[in-house]
Amino acid sequence: MHNHGDFPAESLFLIPAVAAAAAYWAGTVSKKSGAWPYRRLVFFLSGILTVLLTVLEPLAGWAHYDFGALALSHVLAGMAGPALLVLAHPVDLALRTLDPVPAARLRRAVDSAAARALTHPVTATALVAAGMWAMFHTPLLTAMQQSMPVHWLVTAYLTATGCLFTAAILDCGPVPHSLRLRAGALAAAAVAHAGSAAWLLVFPPAGAGSTAAGALLLLGSGLAVQTGLALILLGQQRGTARLLPSARGA
Question: Are 140 and 154 in contact (CB under 8 A)?
Answer without folding.
Answer: yes
